Amino acid sequence: MSSDMLDGRSKDILYAVVESYISTPEPVGSRFITKKYPFGFSSATIRNIMADLEDLGFLIQPHTSAGRVPTDKGYRFFVDALLHKERDSGQQEVPREFAKQFTHKLERIKTNMNAMFSEVTNTLSMMSNYVGVAMPPKSEKSTLKRLDLMKYKGSSVVAILLTDEGIIKNRVLNVHADLAQEDLTRIAEYLNAEYAGSTLDEIKSSLIKRMKHEKALWDKLIAKAMEICEQALSFGEDDIFVSNLYDVMDLPDFSNIARIKELSRAIKDKHMIVSLLDDFIEADGVNVVIGDENPIEDLRRLSVVSSTYKEGDRPMGVIALIGPTRMDYAKAIFMVDAVAKCVSRTFES
Amino acid sequence: MSSDMLDGRSKDILYAVVESYISTPEPVGSRFITKKYPFGFSSATIRNIMADLEDLGFLIQPHTSAGRVPTDKGYRFFVDALLHKERDSGQQEVPREFAKQFTHKLERIKTNMNAMFSEVTNTLSMMSNYVGVAMPPKSEKSTLKRLDLMKYKGSSVVAILLTDEGIIKNRVLNVHADLAQEDLTRIAEYLNAEYAGSTLDEIKSSLIKRMKHEKALWDKLIAKAMEICEQALSFGEDDIFVSNLYDVMDLPDFSNIARIKELSRAIKDKHMIVSLLDDFIEADGVNVVIGDENPIEDLRRLSVVSSTYKEGDRPMGVIALIGPTRMDYAKAIFMVDAVAKCVSRTFES
DNA sequence: ATTAGCACTCTAACAGTGAGAGTGCTAAAG
DNA sequence: CTTTAGCACTCTCACTGTTAGAGTGCTAAT
User: Shortest Cα distance from B347 to chain A (angstroms)?
Assistant: First the structure.
């Protein structure tokens, strides 16, 4: 980490510059620092230090004779410092009331996953002015509680999957045969007996193995059961919840449509976001990705703050905030963390 | 309708002005009209007529010595004229190929309602640059095909409703009793025997009647069944599908955030949109609401073009486009109509 | 009834100016 | 050797004045 090369003084100044720029989006000059932060150096000294910081790539000036603005590297330094600080002094106090209220609210609507995650993303967005994102639990990792099959039109069948976590998925399948409801019920019973308690992933692989092995299945119905089960498990894309952009538009960073459109484009492709957040589901605590660091092209001028929610200690999904690199990281980190904890609590009870 | 007071000449000019302004968002002047539309009058005459049209409230000038811009009343005249014209000459030809392709696409994903309606709104938005909206079929109006109950954690039960239209709803209920899965199955069977084939609305009212009548139900299980059924039928808010704003941001009308935010605000409250579209579900053909005419405050500077999709001749839901009052109505009307028809076709097969 | 002509108005674009903010460098002070 | 005061320099932004152009309304002539 190249910020190790900085002496204490430089760190203080850098921290101050980033903090100031985050709170007010104006390039910050040396004189301003001397006024607002009583370091005890003259503006000339600050100036020298800032020039060094610029050489090292932490700051940049929009043009000669403007103040300095943090680079992504500068923000990274700031966030790292922030995370260390956090660890020492728990700054939560005021928002305990919020957490309580919010948990209550979630508790009330947790029966409806959609409504719950919409609530999560919208609250997140409203309170932070950034884009709230929530990735619901991955169904593949959850364990099958019960499978039901219902006859539908013609040769199509509705499969309903219930998992331990309360994820309910349904899917219309074509079974290429006119099975009676009784047959379906029997098939479902068979599959339940066989697979209840396994994770969907396990079921899938076991299924593939068995189908290969017993190539000619003696029992027609069991063969059909296998076929149905496989279809039932192949879910479509993962859906993800993203807040609307209403509150985001208040930010000065997005005061022109070009920027807002960029953001809109970044969150349009939900697969992208999913694949990004997938990487953080195993990570512990809050994760911050800043601008450049982002693997996804469209997110290179944005930052992502994420945290996982868990049931017990098994990570289930991810909560995140997406905003400009000039983000109030302290706030974003705190909020994501708090909300993730609320969601975890909801899943436990 | 006050546009009856206009003579043919005035109508032609008004139509031309609106058409021109829709195609290019520049106030249109008298000279421009003489150039582009060979009416055979001089600019001075046009000028007089335009002054009259302004007095009558069809046009307005942003400032002295600018051209004229249509008022909502002006757009209304234009749209009415458009709808009459449409009736005579079917202008569909080119997009038959599109309709075919799109119907195919829907056919492939119709098993997943969510995916289907997302596809509808996003395609609509992408092709028109306006906001695509789709209201899925109202579950209350659809008939019950089958109800299933599955035991969940503790005293909660998952109810799954399958309707004729393929709407599958699930809901977690609290039954305040530790019923075994067998009991649940029996209850479900009973309810299916009793109610399959009725619309959910009918079931609801019948249920209420019965519960009042036989106050002391002798059969505990049937009492429970009633209770469960009632809970299962009380769905939450209707959800509605709204496209993202990505393509909308290309419009010059929304080139500043204030306008885009206004739009964002208007579509944020989905209940509002639902209540608006509900009014048009019975209407035949395409419906256009222009600016002022809108009952909802937030939509007063926007227009809504809507159409219903049906199964047979029973209207099921609404497809709509929301855009600026300066909208390409011809295109919007055509697209909404075409897409609604594609969706109808999908529901039929 | 229509139109040519003209005076009038308003906007948008452009260039020029000056204040202000902030820098880098140098030389003096600690 | 580090810090600071001083100063010349640079760049932006806000303001001003000016002008070209587009469009109007009115009047008088056709």
Answer: 12
Measured CA to CA, the distance from residue A342 to residue A95 in angstroms comes to 12
Does the structure show a pLDDT above 80 at A201?
Answer: yes
Which 3 state secondary structure label does DSSP give A305? strand
Closest residue of chain B to A235, computed from CA coordinates: B112
Each residue of A36-71: pLDDT tens digit?
998 989 999 999 999 999 999 999 999 988 999 999
Specify the amino acid at residue A99.
Answer: A
Phi and psi angles of residue B86, each rounded to the nearest 5 degrees, phi first: -50, -45
**Is A30's pLDDT higher than 70?**
yes
In the structure, how far is the CA atom of residue B256 from the C1' atom of nucleotide C7, in angstroms? 37
Residues near B261 by beta carbon (within 8 Å), at least 6 away in sequence: A246, A249
Q: What is the pLDDT of residues B280-317, one digit of tens each?
A: 998 889 999 999 999 999 999 999 999 999 988 889 89
Question: Which residues are within 8 A (CB) of A194 and not within 5 positions of it... i.e. 6 or more apart?
Answer: none
Residue with tokens 């001397």: A34
A27 CB below 7 A from strand C atoms: yes
% residues pLDDT > 90 (chain A): 54
Nearest to B162 among A152, A239, A256 (CB): A152
CA distance A277 to A284: 13
Query: Max Cα separation, chain B?
Result: 89
Average the pLDDT over A126-152 and give the result.
88
Q: How confident is the model at residue B218 (pLDDT cuts 50, 70, 90)?
A: low
Interface touch B260/A268, C-beta < 8 Å? no
Q: What is the DSSP string of A45-79?
A: HHHHHHHHHHHTTSEE-SSTTS-BEE-HHHHHHHH
Query: Measured in angstroms, what separates residue A65's CA from nucleotide C24's C1'?
Result: 10
In this structure, are residues A238 and A115 in contact, taking their beta carbons and an 8 Å threshold?
A: no
Burial B30-46 (b: 16+ CB within 10 A, else e): bebbbeebeeebeeebb
Mean pLDDT, to the nearest integer, of A229-237? Answer: 69
The amino acid sitting at A305 is: V
B247 CA to C6 C1' in angstroms comes to 47
CB-CB contact of A334 with A85 (8 Å): no
Contact B111 A171 (CB under 8 A): yes
Task: Provide the residue type at B25 as one letter.
Answer: P
Instruction: Determine the Cα angle at A259 with ends A257 and A263, to 5°.
Output: 110
Residue closest to B265 by CA, chosen among B238, B307, B300, B304 = B300
Determine how many CB atoms are found less than 10 A away from the CB of residue A312: 9
Tokens of B292: 């002022």
Cα distance between residue B74 and residue B79, in whole Å: 9
From chain B, pick out residues whose CB is under 8 angstroms from the CB of A267.
244
CB pair distance less than 8 Å for B268 and A244? yes
Q: What's the rounded Cα separation, in Å, for the pair B69 and B55?
A: 13
Query: Which DSSP helix (H) or strand (E) runs through B260?
Result: helix B257-268
The DSSP string of B50-81 is HHHHHHTTSEE-SSTTS-BEE-HHHHHHHHHH
Taking CB atoms and an 8 Å limit, are A246 and B265 in contact across chains? yes
Asked whether the beta carbons of residue B171 and residue A112 sit closer than 8 angstroms, the reply is yes
- Contact, A66 CB vs strand D, < 7 Å: yes
- CA dist A297 and A291 (Å) reads 10
